[in-house]
Design goal:
- The complex is a heterodimer of chains A (246) and B (322).
- Chain A is α/β, with parallel strands linked by helices and 246 residues long.
- In chain A, 28% of the residues lie in helices and 30% in strands.
- In chain A, the strands form 2 sheets. A 9-stranded mixed beta sheet of chain A has the order 9-8-7-10-6-1-4-5-11, sandwiched between helices.
- Chain A is globular, with a radius of gyration of 21 Å.
- By secondary structure, chain B is of the alpha/beta class.
- In chain B, the strands form 3 sheets. Chain B has a 7-stranded parallel beta sheet with strand order 5-9-4-1-2-3-10, sandwiched between helices. A 5-stranded parallel beta sheet of chain B has the order 13-12-14-15-16.
- In chain B, helix 2 packs across helix 3 and helix 4 runs parallel beside helix 7.
- Classes of the chains: A alpha/beta (246), B alpha/beta (322).
- Chains A and B meet through helix 3, helix 4, strand 7, strand 8 and strand 9 of A and helix 2, helix 3, strand 5, strand 7 and strand 8 of B.
- The complex binds flavin-adenine dinucleotide (FAD) and adenosine monophosphate (AMP).
- The site of adenosine monophosphate has 23 residues of chain A, from helix 1, strand 4, helix 3, strand 6 and helix 4.
Chain lengths: 246, 322
């Protein structure tokens, strides 16, 4: 079996959010980046578990500049066998999806794993785009994935519950919480990661269909109004008359 | 033409669908174009009712196979409908269904896509459309311009209020070829009785301050009197005190209810990321230094085991007097 896991990186969850003075770009100065949690905790770990059970290879793919190689090495330390970096700034979902699809088109994979969404731009766009480029089924937000022979049984999160679906290989899946348990890379993994192959591939050109106009910060809260813990009638009155939410 | 995909999970139009139709109608007015809604599969209500929310035409492809989702099939059918009616903007809901399809449609129709849209900043009848959406888990707002001939938007939940100002219309049946599905839906398990978290207007959420899962009775009671849906912080779900689908935050679900009541939750940045778009936030915490108070509109510093039953009682009294 061959599994492709698409990994992105996002600002550390506690990073402050600021933009360049023209408001057009995220200001990354002084920000540490982490592997997108859905990609790391669920997609990558489940792909590794399946490989360990069934044999095969796990390829971790990242679209990004050389500066992001620490994230790729971490994926190798967690258990991917080899890595591919498409050497380009991932400027949009359309761009990223096209790069992933071009690589996957020429290197057959049984399952292409992605995360449910990146936690920075919160798009949940790339997976569906990759699937359409490759004319493959797409299962979004999978919280459980089992494989028997050529067929996978997948549980996916829907509003207020789960849907259980069956699909034959090959397909594209995006991973949500529950698909696997987070793995902390051990010393052996970290050592081995240094010697695993990392291929650098040139990007294909893409016309950008969407452009950033500006980023702004939401207006700050005006401050909390404290209500005496004995006076819950007063809180109810405020919620009704002032906030108008009950 | 603004074409809204009026999704109908298990044969019903949910709030997200009515919001999308209302949003589509408003956008169509701004563009000086008509708004149509398209329904895939069979529904258990009269699809023509979508006219009330502003659809001038309601189109339906009533093939039974479309009752369950295969993103590939839905994409091909929607793309064909969009072509037939000459859609310039396609509106979807930012739901588990919409997110399965939006990216595919964008590739198929070579359209610019912005997902999770909360509003329109600029709409020109010819050419570009500028929309905004929360990014960085609600810590910032991004505005994007789309200039492709066909544009696709998926609308974030609770961004507009459904407005039933129109009247029902006659449903037009469309004859579109439905390709065979490759995804077979075997079973759907839903939690009965409660409004699902992403759709809830009022959410009562509790954290590690609850001390023990056995204490959740007071949370359930408060939720009951408010008609609210319950949620929890990540450590609570991780220790299996509460089911996973209640976990909100950066790595759980992001919600934007009208009212979010946070009980015994410290307000870590990753938790706030999932809830800070709520209209009004009430925080109940015994520690006056808890970071959540900085993000709150109303705060109660006190022991939740005393405050929550008192609040429940006050709401009960208020509801009885209404
Ligand atoms: C990458 C990453 C992603 C994460 N994603 C999420 C996420 O999606 N969602 C999430 O929630 N967390 C997330 N976290 C965890 C987050 O950082 C916090 O650890 C977590 O939110 C804390 O949960 P809590 O507020 O329930 O518990 P605590 O931080 O332990 O807070 C408990 C609170 O209860 C109060 N309290 C205690 N007893 C009482 C009482 N009797 N009456 C009133 N108040 C009382 C205390 O004062 C305290 O403020 C993430 C962390 C990381 C690193
Ligand atoms: N630059 C990237 N390189 C590789 N995979 C990516 C990249 N950006 C996004 N992805 C994948 O696409 C998923 C969904 O991202 P998004 O559509 O941006 O929310 C992520 O969880 C990753 O698996």
């Amino acid at each position: 079996m061959k599994f492709l896991v698409c990994i992105s990186q996002t600002p550390d969850t506690t990073a402050r959010v600021a933009f360049t003075p023209d408001g057009k770009n995220y200001d990354a100065s002084g920000v540490t980046f982490i592997m997108n949690p859905y990609d790391e905790w669920y997609a990558l770990v489940r792909a590794c578990e399946l490989k360990e059970a069934l044999g095969g290879t796990v390829v971790a793919l990242h679209v990004g500049p050389a500066a992001n190689e620490t994230t790729i090495r971490k994926a190798l330390a967690i258990g991917a066998d080899e890595a591919v970096r498409i050497d380009a700034e991932p400027t949009s979902s359309a761009f990223t999806a096209r790069q992933i699809a071009e690589y996957a088109r020429t290197n057959h994979f049984d399952i292409i794993f992605l995360g449910k969404e990146t936690i920075d731009y919160n798009g949940a766009e790339v997976g569906a785009m990759v699937a359409e480029h490759l004319d493959l089924p797409f299962i979004a937000f999978a919280s459980k994935l089992d494989l028997s022979g050529n067929t996978a049984v997948v549980e996916r999160d829907i509003e207020g519950g789960v849907e259980v679906v069956e699909v034959d290989l090959p397909f594209v899946v995006s991973a949500a919480k529950g698909m696997a348990e987070q793995r902390i890379p051990n010393m052996r993994g970290i050592m081995m990661a240094r010697t695993k192959p990392l291929h650098v591939v040139a990007p294909v050109p893409v016309d950008e269909p969407v452009a950033v106009v500006r980023f702004t910060l939401p207006p700050a809260k005006t401050g909390v109004k404290l209500v005496d813990p004995e006076q819950m009638d007063e809180l109810v009155r405020l919620l009704h008359e002032e906030a108008k939410v009950i | 033409m603004v074409l809204v995909y009026a999704e109908s999970p298990r044969g019903q139009f949910k709030k997200a669908t009515l919001e999308a139709v209302t949003f589509g109608k408003n956008l169509a007015e701004q563009l000086g174009q008509p708004c149509a809604a398209v329904v895939l599969g069979k529904v258990q209500t009269d699809a023509g009712e979508l006219g009330r929310y502003g659809a001038a035409r309601v189109l339906q492809v009533p093939d039974e196979q479309l009752n369950t989702l295969d993103s590939q099939v839905a994409t091909q059918v929607l793309a064909e409908v969009a072509r037939q009616v000459g859609a310039t903007v396609l509106v979807l809901s930012h739901t588990s269904t919409g997110k399965s399809i939006a990216g595919r449609l964008a590739v198929r129709l070579q359209a610019g896509l912005v997902s999770g849209v909360s509003g329109v900043s600029e709409a020109e009848s010819q050419g570009r459309l500028v929309v905004r959406k929360p990014v960085f888990s609600g810590k910032a707002i991004a505005e994007y311009a789309i200039a492709t001939p066909v544009k696709i938007l998926s609308l974030m939940g609770n961004a507009v209020r459904p407005e039933a100002t129109g009247s029902p219309v006659t449903v037009e049946t469309l004859d579109v070829a439905v390709p065979p599905a490759r995804v077979r839906v075997r079973e759907v398990r839903t939690v009965e009785g409660r409004v699902p978290l992403p759709e809830a207007e009022v959410v009562v959420s509790a954290g590690r301050g609850m001390k023990d899962p056995a204490n959740w009775g007071i949370i359930e009671e408060l939720a009951e009197v408010l008609g609210a849906t319950t949620a929890c912080s990540r450590p609570v779900a991780d220790s299996h005190w509460r089911p996973h689908h209640e976990h909100v935050g950066q790595t759980g679900i992001a919600i934007r209810p009208n009212l979010y009541i946070a009980i015994g939750i410290s307000g870590a940045i990753q938790h706030l990321a999932g809830v800070n778009n709520s209209k009004v936030i009430v925080v109940i915490n015994k520690d006056p230094e808890a970071p959540f108070f900085k993000a709150a509109d109303y705060g109660v510093v006190g022991d939740l085991f005393e405050v929550v039953p008192r609040l429940t009682e006050a709401i009960r009294k208020f509801k009885a007097a209404q």
